[in-house]
Amino acid sequence: MRDVRLSAYCMNCLVKSQLDKMPENADEEAKASYMKAVLNTVGNCEDWETAPVVHSKLIKLQKELFGDSISYKEEKKLFNDLMLKEEDKIKSKIEKTNDPVLTAIKYARTGNYIDFAALENVNEEELLNLLSESEKSDINEEEYENFKSDMEKAKNLVVLADNTGEIVLDKIMIEEIKQKYPKVSVTVIVRGAPVINDVTKEDAEYVGIDKIAKIIENGTAVAGTALELINKETKDAILKADLILSKGQGNFETLNTCGLNIYYVFLCKCQWFVKQFNIKKLEGVFVNDRRLKMED
């Protein structure tokens, strides 16, 4: 694991994003006080802390100074309902392909677009356009062959969920995996409390995840999976899993290079990730942690 897990680019992004998080009616003294606290929090973070961990501290700061943080309750329901409406149509398309598991992974990866933390504008039209191109997107063939080999031997699969809306496509992916590999037991791990538009247990049950997999809350309000902070049940499930499917940038940021058998599935949504993977914005990643090399 790298000694420093928060890049200069991410520090800058964390600070700049807070300028838009303050109430418009707050006076300049309060705003200045908040930004000083933000700079102090970012500048004095521990070496192991990642952007999602530091971001959770900033949300707490914001709540202390300005009251409740921004709620994404309406957006979460909007995109869950949108994807539930599209679910049967997407599943029908997937099941007509030569490899439904592969295609389902592609759709689930595209669903990672629904991220109100990483993208300034998340809209229905662009999401549907991206989904219509999912089948044409590339996944590293060698990595997918490794994944299939791991799945043939697996008894326990953990899926680290990320965003609402996206979770409906994760559900389709899990159903296809269970159909292809009926001996595997699937556990879905969600956030322990609301954070941005990430999936909580309530959200997962709303779309029916509880009907196909066990759900575990990770005990934190961090938009990722920090092994240093999650509860014992979650950590045990992750460490005992034969393999892990990790959705989204936040889970990647908190776990990358940890050495576990994790397949990361997400879209690159910021310039830092574009640079790291040398691909275009909104292109997809499918890579195993054990074969991952990150630049410092």
Q: What descriptive keywords fit this protein?
A:
single chain, 296 residues, Rossmann fold, 2 domains, six-stranded mixed sheet, 12 helices
Describe the structure.
By secondary structure, the protein is an alpha/beta fold. The protein folds into two domains: 8-66; 73-291, Rossmann fold (3-Layer(aba) Sandwich). Helix content is 48%, strand content 10%. The chain contains twelve helices and six strands. Strands 3-2-1-4-5-6 form a six-stranded mixed β-sheet, sandwiched between helices. Helix 8 (166-180) links the parallel strand 1 (156-160) and strand 2.
Number of domains: 2
Strand fraction: 5-15%
Strand order of the largest sheet: 3-2-1-4-5-6
Overall CATH class of the largest domain: Alpha Beta
H-E string: HHHHHHHEHEHEHEHEHE
Please tally the β strands and state the result.
6
CATH superfamily of the largest domain: Uncharacterised protein PF01937, DUF89, domain 3
Provide the structure class: alpha/beta
Nearest-integer average pLDDT: 93
Taking pLDDT < 50 over at least 5 consecutive residues as the criterion, the unreliable ranges are none
- Count up the helices: 12
End-to-end Cα distance: 11 Å
**Oligomeric state of the chains in view:** single chain
Please bin the fraction of helical residues. 40-55%
Query: What does the largest sheet look like?
Result: 6 strands, mixed
Please give the CATH architecture of the largest domain.
3-Layer(aba) Sandwich
CATH topology of the largest domain: Rossmann fold
Q: From the alpha-carbon coordinates, what is the Rg to the nearest angstrom?
A: 19 Å
